[in-house]
Structure formats: C-alpha cells, structure tokens
Design goal:
globular, alpha+beta, disordered N terminus, 24% helix, PvuII Endonuclease, Chain A, 6 helices, five-stranded antiparallel β-sheet, five-stranded mixed β-sheet
C-alpha cells in the first residue's frame, strides 16, 4: 500500500531536495526533446529509472514535470488496453490512416473523451464508455457517415485502472520549470512544485465521464535517425488539461 499523505517526513525531504535544485538555477538538459525536463529533474533529485519501482520518489511521490509555457496536457499514466491482445497495433491498423511522410505505415493520433464522440480523421468517432456493470472502460468507435456504433470490443479492466490510479496517482509532485536554449542545448530552471492528491478510483471514473480526464492515442513513425520509418508508439495515456487539474485534484504548495 502507498503510505498515507500524512507522512510529513517524505514531503519535508522532497521540499529540501527541490529547494536545492531550485537554487541551482538553469541546468542543462540530460536528454533531448520533450522527455528531457523530467529525466533531468529525476537525475538531479537522485531518482534512477527502475522498471520494478512503482512510484518515483521514496515510493511515495510520483514526479511530473512540465515547461511553464506549454499548453500540453499533464499525463497521469500510459497503459495500452487490456483487450484485445496488442491493442495499440489493432487500433492503428483498424482506425489509422497512412502517415504522410511514410505512407507504408499507418498513424493514429486522437484525443477522446467520455462526454461525447470525437472525430478521428473525419471517418470514425471515438468515445470512452465506463461500464460499471461489466467493470470495464470501453473504447467505442462509430462510423461518422451513418452514426453506427461498431461492435469492436476494446477495453481496460477496472481492476487494471484501479491498481494504477491507487499506486501512481495518489501523491503527485507536479513541477514546473522555465526553459531556454543556449548554444543549441535546452536548459531548465525548476521554479515551483505542488502536491496533487485526492484522486480515488471512483473520482477517476467520474472524471472520465465528465470529460475532465481525457484519453490520448499517439502512434506514428520515426521521422529521422536509425529508426526512420519504423513504428513509433508513444503509448495510450490518460491525461488532463492544466485548467482542469483543480477540478480533479486537491492542490497543496510544497
């Protein structure tokens, strides 16, 4: 079980570690592109990539970092659907379109809500459906030309989602940083951190139904480098807009 939020020793230790990093001012990114901000902070605070560790910091705080100016949503977690097997491949092959830069490979980029159907390349609509009777969260597709909902069964088991929400989304340290480029290298200045708490599984499902917690599919192909032309799967993830964080989480200054 995740320790209770009243464990002030961990919060105090994190606050001290964060202040140390904040006092460093701008630091050079340890990794190129979007993931550099999180990787650099984790390196500075002493968190090592570990596939066996459920939660980032002292098995209590999940770390999330973003650039101050970004309009990107905050990713809560990524996980491909439980069914069918190789669900992301099925989604790309069935509902994707040829990548303009690499037509041999299909891409599928879309953001879906539980509140209404979206439009996927003007061909399909996608909506999340939380089915409490079956204890499953379904990805429902329909044809936009005739509104017919497809019988395709693509879903997450509630048990899978509950485990992730209760392990990785209970105590989130949400860090924001300034970003600049110096001599072609990105640098970050980590300015503030807040604690996000209060997300139960039931509140997660409610957030999906209200369209506060969204679902992102980002599958395409590498555009350069040694993997050019190969499938690039950024994962299927549950995300939230910055403006809606306050509607889902309790926010506390660290």
């Amino acid at each position: 079980m995740v320790p209770p939020i009243s464990d002030n020793n961990i919060i105090t230790t994190f606050r001290e570690d964060f202040q140390r990093i904040k006092d460093m001012g701008f630091v050079r990114s340890n990794r190129a592109h979007n993931t550099g901000i999180g990787k650099t902070f984790e390196d500075l605070i002493g968190v090592h990539e570990n596939n066996f560790q459920l939660v980032d910091y002292m098995n209590f705080l999940e770390l999330k970092s973003q650039r101050d100016y970004t309009m990107s949503m905050l990713t809560l977690f990524t996980k491909s659907p439980d069914f069918p097997r190789n669900a992301n491949t099925h989604l790309r092959d069935t509902y994707g379109v040829p990548d303009e830069e690499n037509p041999r490979v299909k891409k599928l980029h879309t953001t879906a809500s539980g509140a209404r159907f979206n439009s996927v390349y003007d061909r399909f609509g996608l909506k999340l459906e939380c089915n409490n009777a079956e204890n499953k969260l379904f990805l429902r597709f329909k044809h936009l030309n005739d509104e017919a909902v497809l019988p395709d069964r693509i879903y997450y088991d509630y048990a899978t989602l509950r485990f992730i929400v209760e392990q990785k989304c209970q105590n989130i340290a949400y860090i924001n940083a300034e970003s600049r480029v110096v001599n072609g290298h990105e640098e970050f200045k980590y300015n503030n951190a807040v604690l996000l708490t209060g997300l139960s599984f039931e509140k997660f499902i409610d957030g999906v139904n209200q369209g506060l917690i969204l679902y992102d599919i980002r599958i395409g192909s590498y555009k350069s480098g040694r993997n050019f032309g190969k499938i690039h799967d950024h994962g299927s993830g549950f995300r939230i807009k910055k403006a809606d964080i306050q509607n889902v989480f309790l926010i506390t200054e660290i």
